[in-house]
Amino acid sequence: MTHALVAQVRNTSSATESSLNDMKKAVHVAVGVVVNAQQEVLLSFRDAHQHQGNLWEFPGGKCEANERVEDALARELMEELNIQVAQAEPLCNVAHDYGDKQVLLDVWWVDKFTGVPKSNEGQRWRWVPLQTLGAYQFPAANEPILVAIRERVALIR
């Protein structure tokens, strides 16, 4: 890991801890922006009965008590989609209050993984070209993630 990446990870961890202190009741979620070689991103569809249902999201799930975010991300992507994270780096953190629920999204850019995605939990999912993300409806907390993706893609080009 390069020194710059280590510093970025440390800064992200500090931001996460600070955000968690501000949002004591927040659900801490590890989120993966999983990108394949064709520059498509993996989206999951939230069931109608779930909080923020009938919307698309980036896969991931709740961090367990005392679980590192990286470990939660790897566990959730394996449980949900049968893929193993081979390379990931922090993208952004989002603290959002829905009124009925507060979330802290710890978002990671996953550009190397093994396995073929399959729905282990019955959710719909699909690969979507990065440039078409604006055509999908996401929970409000995902808006800053979309901005971070656009910025990252612009830097890559």
What report would you give on this structure?
- The chain is of the alpha+beta class.
- It contains three helices and seven strands; from the N terminus they run H-E-E-E-E-H-E-E-E-H.
- It has helices spanning 3-22, 69-81, 143-156; strands spanning 27-34, 40-45, 56-57, 60-62, 84-97, 102-114, 125-129.
- Mean pLDDT is 82; it is low at 1-14.
List the helices and strands and how they pair.
Layout: H1 3-22, E1 27-34, E2 40-45, E3 56-57, E4 60-62, H2 69-81, E5 84-97, E6 102-114, E7 125-129, H3 143-156
Parallel strand pairs: 1-6
Antiparallel strand pairs: 1-4, 2-3, 2-7, 5-6
CATH superfamily: Nucleoside Triphosphate Pyrophosphohydrolase
Biggest pleated-sheet summary? 4 strands, mixed
Mean pLDDT: 82
CATH architecture: Alpha-Beta Complex
Query: How many helical elements?
Result: 3
Number of strands: 7
The name of the CATH topology is Nucleoside Triphosphate Pyrophosphohydrolase
Report the principal-axis shape. globular
Q: Into how many domains do the coordinates divide?
A: 1
Report helical residue fraction.
25-40%
Computed Rg:
15 Å
User: Which class do the helix and strand fractions yield?
Assistant: alpha+beta
Quaternary status of these chains?
Answer: single chain
Summarize the model shown.
With 157 residues, this protein is an alpha+beta fold.
Features of the shown structure:
globular; three-stranded antiparallel sheet; alpha+beta; four-stranded mixed sheet; 157 residues; Nucleoside Triphosphate Pyrophosphohydrolase
